[in-house]
Design a protein that fits this description.
five-stranded parallel beta sheet; globular; Helicase, Ruva Protein, domain 3; 19 helices; alpha/beta; Rossmann fold; single chain
């Protein structure tokens, strides 16, 4: 039996060679094509490939557009490997039947697992017959958002109920509408804003109005108990036909409400066939620059405004309990109070971010605190863990080492700049 061959479409030569080595480790051969044109020549020239590894950012075009341009019978089972992990790319890849969507820097373990699935089975390349809705986009490259992109892509490609959970302001309604717009039901449907006062008639009208499309139930946890029972009963009649697909949103506390008996468990599990959990902004602070730029573009199209280093420090120290909604309001405030400025400074931020309020002053930045928590968990988890003095000495030594890099390794310069004793600094380094 001949060895299976994988086509690697990647213009970064070093990465292409690394991918080829990973392909070899799972028992397959590989063929390299650094451009879409070369890949097309191979595929349309009759060469047979058991799979394809495809980058999106190719020198001669977009990798997904290249994939879409191929005749269905010419498309091998495809794994996308890209630095461009935006939600639109994830959805488009899913629509094109891509087996796996992996972002750079690449997790080679996950890559090889996906490659084994390609080699072990025949993968369906069914496509959803809907287009991505313009204007609906999630911004960010944080690891937590990559998971969200995959969950939304799976939800778009499925016809099962979806529960979208997250704190206030994380974008639950946005995600629900994105799923609705890209649903196999054709993007049509209704939205019901649920609340304790929602009537049975309003629920029935929403179900009827959605028809065979998608019904979004916003804040489903606020439905009164009798309406929860009605909805359970109506879902049970789904096999009769004409019932909409349900996409429900809720706060993060819904599972606790189920355990407390405040929300029916049978309804919860009917809605939670698929789940999208949106992370709070404090868990994806690395996305702040992209989000701020996005909101500035929304609020002031065509205007170029930068953010000062001091303002960035204030923004990154805040916990953002209001999440994306709070951030958008803060950006709107900054653009309004200084309408002609080209740079947003600390003085342009809302007062509670400038001084005295939460997230200001000399409090430890959240990301540093999270990293410190992880380090402490690791150090304290071992038997006979370190005493406080060992922990503090290790931290102090690491701080001195990092400071030294900023002063070209000159201990005397460091001591003078920070008004510290050079002998003491050297002793702390030697003790670590």
């Amino acid at each position: 039996m001949s060895q299976p061959t994988i086509l690697i479409v990647e213009d970064q030569h070093a990465l292409a060679l690394a991918l080829a080595a990973a392909v070899s480790q799972v028992g397959a051969a590989s063929k390299l094509a650094p451009t879409a044109a070369q890949a097309r020549e191979l595929l349309e020239g009759g060469a047979l490939f058991e799979g394809m590894i495809l980058d999106i950012g190719l020198p001669d075009g977009n990798g997904l557009e290249f994939l879409a341009s191929l005749a269905a019978e010419r498309r091998p089972p495809t794994i996308v490997v890209t630095a461009h992990g935006e939600i639109q790319n994830t959805i488009e890849a899913r629509k094109l039947g891509v087996v796996e969507f992996l972002t750079k820097p690449l997790d080679f373990g996950a890559f090889q697992n996906a490659l084994r699935r390609v080699l072990e089975s025949s993968v369906s390349k069914g496509k959803a017959a809907v287009a991505v809705a313009e204007g609906l986009a999630f911004i960010g490259a944080a690891a937590s958002m990559r998971t969200v992109f995959r969950q939304i892509a799976h939800s778009c490609a499925s016809d099962d109920p979806v529960l979208v959970r997250g704190e206030t302001g994380t974008g639950k309604s946005h995600a629900a509408r994105l799923i609705q717009a890209n649903s196999a039901r054709g993007g049509s449907g209704q939205v019901l804003a649920a609340g304790p006062a929602t009537s049975i008639g309003e629920l029935e009208d929403a179900l009827c109005g959605a028809g065979k499309g998608v019904l979004i139930i916003e804040d489903v946890g606020q439905l009164a108990p009798d309406l929860q029972g009605v909805l359970v009963g109506r879902i049970g009649e789904e096999e009769a036909g004409g019932f909409p697909r349900l996409v429900a949103t809720s706060g993060d506390a819904l599972p606790e409400r189920v355990r407390d008996g405040a929300f029916r468990s049978d309804l919860y599990y009917r809605l939670q066939v698929l789940e999208v959990r949106l992370p709070p902004l404090r868990e994806r602070l690395e996305d702040l620059p992209a989000l701020v730029s996005y909101f500035m573009g929304q609020l002031m199209p065509g205007r170029v405004v930068e953010v000062s280093d001091a303002a960035w420090r204030r923004l990154s120290r805040h916990d953002w309990p209001g999440n994306l909604l709070e951030l958008r309001n803060a950006v709107a405030y900054a653009l309004t109070v200084n309408p002609g400025a080209t740079v947003v400074d600390v003085s342009d931020l809302p007062p509670y971010l400038v001084g005295g309020g939460e997230g200001s002053g000399e409090r430890m930045p959240l990301r540093l605190g999270q990293a410190l928590d992880g380090w402490l968990d690791e150090r304290l988890s071992v038997e006979d863990g370190p005493v406080y003095r060992e922990l503090s000495e290790a931290l102090e030594a690491e701080l001195i080492r990092r400071l030294l890099k900023r002063y070209d390794g000159k201990l005397a310069r460091l001591a003078a700049a920070l008004k510290a004793n050079r002998t003491t600094l050297r002793k702390r380094l030697n003790e670590s």
